[in-house]
Amino acid sequence: MDIFKKIQNFLILVIWRMVRTCPGTIVICGLVLAIICGVSSALYLKLDSDQDNLLSHDLPFQKRNLEQIKNFGDQEYMFVVIETGGTDKGKEQAALFASSLASKLEGKPNVIREVHYAMSARDMGPGVLMFASEDELRDFVKLARNIGPLGNEWFNGPGLAKFLDMNAELLSGKKDMGGAADPEMLIPMVGALDSLVGKMESVLNKGTVLSENSGPVLNLDKAGMQYFYTRNGKLLIMRILPKKDFAAMSVIGQALKVVRDSLNQTREEFPEVSAGLTGRPVLSADEMITTNDDMTLASIVSVLLVGLLFMIVLHGWLRPALVMFSLFCAMAWTFGFALVTLGSLNLLSIVFALVLVGIGVDFGIHVVLRYVEGTAAGLSPEDAVEESLMHTGPGVLLGGITSVCAFYAVLGQEFVGLAELGLIGGTGIIFCLISMLTVLPSLLLIAGRRNLFPSSHPRMATMPFMDKVISRPKSVLAVALILSALAYPGLKNAGFNYNLLDLQAKGLESVEYEHKLINDSDESTWFAVMTRPDLESVTALTQQLKNIPSVGRIDSILNFLPEGQKEKAQILRGEAKYLDGMDFNAPPVALVSDQVSGSLEKLTDSLEGIEEKLFSAGAKEELQLVSDLLDKASSCIALIDKNPSAVQNLVPIQTRLVSELSSSFKWIKEILEVRSVKSDDLPEHLRSLYIGRDGSFMVKIAAVGNVWDFELLKSFVADLRKIDPEVTGVPVVVLESSLLMRDTFTEAAVLTIVLVSIILFFTSFSVSYVLLTLIPLIVGIFWLLEVMGGTGLSFNLANFFAIPVLIAIGVDGGVHFLARWKELAKGERLYDTSTPVAVGLSFCTTMIGFGGLLLAHHRGLASLGGIMVVGSATCMVGCMVILPAVFRLIEQFKGRKNL
User: pTM value?
Assistant: First the structure.
């Protein structure tokens, strides 16, 4: 006997002596430790849902990405996509929808950091005139010269009545303001007057004063508002920057709820407008919510079905309960280990519990079924437990070690998320191994001694019918070979799908509107990032990028630095003087009901004249605006005539009107004095987007086409790296992390096979033993690939970890079958023992453990469930049909059954 078997048997013997001597102490210690670990984990174990922490921060591409985030801040936006239909009316409704939604979100600073959907002239800063064309600038200068005298008149006793009088004269043509009665000026004027008179009507009608939060009376800030429509005008895009909480699974859970609640409220206000929420943080949050729900459901279904299967096979509820108790102890210990070693679970390591349900319980199956076999043969509970441990213990130990190899194979990898899953999952399997070899035998011994089982001689489940299946081993192997050959075309079709959007649940709003952004706009929720130290290099880089076919939209600070500033400065030179001498702090005059009423009548006269001209011209839209204003003005006149004293309720409106106009005139004077616009002159909210804390400039680059398509993504990043090898951003991180995950999985699978083969060899020092043990695995994986290719099931970044797990369970089945075959006495048949049932049950529990994922809405998890179920089934057939057929063939060939 070799040294490895001696160590193995000695270890099992020590365990048996402990179990026989103090089973109660072992159970109590295991339970107390489980309670301590469970309670401590519930109180202190945290969830780290920061996806950036799934990768090593020392990776060059990740290091650059984190440095960019630190320098420029978090710019991962949520996108509200509002459909316009591409019509003017649709755009108007979309703008109103966006404004209403923004007003709801701007009152939630605790969860929403920024909301952007439009930009007004004031948002561009004092240099706004530099963005106009020279012709537009000359028109504005003409307007400024005309409003100079009007301004001086206004500030000489400003008041509500005077404002109404001046507008009435402008609309009638008695005063000139650079074309005030032109159609282009008419709509803004009527819109401002409609806002003012509408508020006057509301105050006069309700008899209450204007509240402080009712907004501006003229809405002058919305003049010249530029909304963020896509180039084709089909969509209006709102960008929302949420606050993040990486201790929560969804990261933006609070912000997401606020935005979705506000979005639903706004939909009720505008039922004819279609809008939805998407963006990378929304997709990630939806994925976390979906996967959490799916994992919870899968875990519950798995535990219930595994327990039910145990009850059927083991003829009762107590033995299954003992196995599940031992499993839960091991899971609690694993949570405690995670708390002590890592302090948190990441988005990958959190799935270890499902892994343990599918794999860890297998060890207990072999122990319990061998115990049942012993008691059925008439052994006492103590002798039955001893036989179970001494005969199945070595196989369980070896199978456990091979399973641990599958998880520990990823330790030390730069994909930290997988490495932590490997550490916790592998250690969890060790804890399952310990629990099933100590706690479970102790429980069986205690229950047996106290005669707690329903029958002291339970029926032993066997599979004698399988002997007929493998009675002709050559035929069995020939059929398997023919079927494999027929399914071979499927093997060539088995592939890898890198598209992360294909992993999401179907029907999610975030996925649907991500597709709309891809298909109907030049917008992208992903952008690559390059940085440059100065504007000259930003300009040069922009020119280079424009020559690359795969590059679409390019955003930088240059978008906000106007051209031809010297020529425009010449046009503006000296124009601010026309606003000199105005007293911007002039107090408003007292309100007199007769004056206000008379001014409103002058306004209605002017509007009626405008109305006639618009009717003759057939301008229906403008005519409707004027008619609405006329109705409101007439209503105000009637209300004042009815109750003249109510005019005093308009004092707050007059005060706000004077304040707004003072601010507007100040701003006009300020913008007329600007001679140039540099990056430092831009408003802070623009500079923070493109200028880093170190003074460098960011250039954002979006791809042409669907950046979720992996081949396009590779081509796009490759093109950018030809210009700047240190390009970063989401496309680069997604590409590199996807390739890293694939390589990590591949290396883990190869390393697992190598380690398992080495362990098997040093256990037996027999190459034939290694090859026979690997038969179920080789056959199972080969058939799995054929089925995948034939059914269209692909490997992806959510299910590829199934391969190392399948390696572990495939080898485990081979270990137990081979060990029991070598142990058979002369004339004893393999399928008359409990081992095939135990192995079959182990595969079934794995299929059940992961099969619950087939119910998942998340397509990535569902595909993981599919691969694990199919792979477990093919490995089971390889183990329970092909391997015994090979055994029978060897027996026939050698005339004996021993290797």
Answer: 0.77
